Input
Amino acid sequence: MRLEILLYVFVMALTTYLVRMLPMTLFRKKIKSRFARSFFYYIPYAVLAAMTLPAILYSTDGYLSALAGLAVAVVLSLLNQSLIVVSLAACVVAFLVGMISF
Output
């Protein structure tokens, strides 16, 4: 194994460790700021949306089928359907629109 690869693995391990360790050491007391608590509450949702939306739009050959699947997923999720129903319906609609518009 080359030394460069070991160095890369070490840097990645150190980065992962620091990202997980620093919040525990910096924020020992309960956060009292209402703004900061609200900010930290919504971070996972914002990151998930930022990672998921591009993947949705580039998952098919055309934007039309991807947008149709996204629209169905949003509507069904607003109607409080389960995750499996939302994902299956979005996949089926995206597939059907992709087959029609090919």
Observations:
- The helical segments are 3-26, 34-57, 63-78, 83-101.
- The mean pLDDT is 90.
- Residues 71 and 90 are 8 Å apart (CA to CA).
